[in-house]
Amino acid sequence: MTSPVPLLSLLCGKVAPFRGPAEPSAIDKRPVLGEVRVRRSGLEGDTQADLTVHGGPDKAIHHYPHDHYAWWREAIGDHPLLAGNGAFGENVSTRGVVEDMVCIGDRWRLGTAVVEVSQGRQPCWKLDHRFGGARVNALCVRSRRSGWYYRVIQEGVAQSGEVMELLDRPFPSWTVLRVFGLLIAGDHKSDRASLEALGEVTPLAESWARRRAKLLAG
């Protein structure tokens, strides 16, 4: 089992103008001091602008490994956003666990809450805009440094400085890296068998289950 993972920061954001007033976003997440309540809808105090693609039970909390920040500095330069946490709009920042070490369906203790990995994070144009036009979106897909989402199984409270502990891993073959590769990065084109087998992974987010079905249908 994975060792306890240090929780560097919990972050929340408010909806604000992003690319002009007509394009609001809450991607600008800031560290929260002290305890944060973890609710079914996500961290208390966090918001989303476009609820058709962000938030909801399957994407209540976004986790992005701080481990990737050094790679990003090499890839796009030493952008000011990379000096702290929250550059990728994450709610959870840690060091010591990345996409090939986390599986769909993993249950983790986050403070007194329990969260479950539901899907990888599918990047969008907002990352490019946030980084001043750098090709972050495409690089996320190509490098598979996606981060992932949790649904909240048990509500509770958490705070920075604690550790996250893995409680259960029912699908050890289905890492976030593997599933992201199949559903987002194009691996299904050469690995239909895995795409078919992915149907056994019942905790997979509903939107990604639909994407799998669409890819199978051609």
3D architecture notes:
- With 218 residues, the protein is α+β, with helices and mostly antiparallel strands.
- The chain has a single domain, classed as Beta Barrel (M1 Pyruvate Kinase, Domain 3).
- Helix content is 22%, strand content 26%.
- It is built from six helices and 13 strands.
- A hairpin with a 6-residue loop joins strand 2 (16-17) and strand 3.
- The model has no long low-confidence stretch (mean pLDDT 96).
- Residues 30-167 form the MOSC domain.
- The helix count comes to 6
Sheet with most strands: strand arrangement: 1-8-7-11-10-9-13
Work out the helicity level.
Answer: 10-25%
The third-level CATH topology is M1 Pyruvate Kinase, Domain 3
Please state the overall shape, judged from the principal axes of the Cα atoms. globular
Write down the overall mean pLDDT: 96
> How many E-type strands?
13
* Low-confidence residue ranges: none
Oligomer: single chain
Main sheet makeup: 7 strands, mixed, barrel
Question: Mind telling me the C-alpha Rg?
Answer: 17 Å
By secondary-structure content and strand pairing, the structural class works out as alpha+beta
CATH top-level class:
Mainly Beta
What is the total domain count?
A: 1
Task: Please name the defining characteristics of this protein.
218 residues; alpha+beta; M1 Pyruvate Kinase, Domain 3; seven-stranded mixed beta barrel; three-stranded antiparallel beta sheet; 6 helices; 13 strands; 26% strand
Question: SSE layout and pairings?
Answer:
Layout (H helix, E strand, L loop, with lengths): L4 E8 L3 E2 L6 E2 L4 E2 L4 E4 L2 E2 L17 E5 L3 H8 L15 E3 L12 E4 L2 E8 L4 H6 L5 H8 L4 E7 L1 E3 L4 E6 L7 H8 L8 H6 L8 H12 L1
Parallel strand pairs: 7-8
Antiparallel strand pairs: 1-4, 1-8, 1-13, 2-3, 5-6, 5-12, 7-11, 9-10, 9-13, 10-11
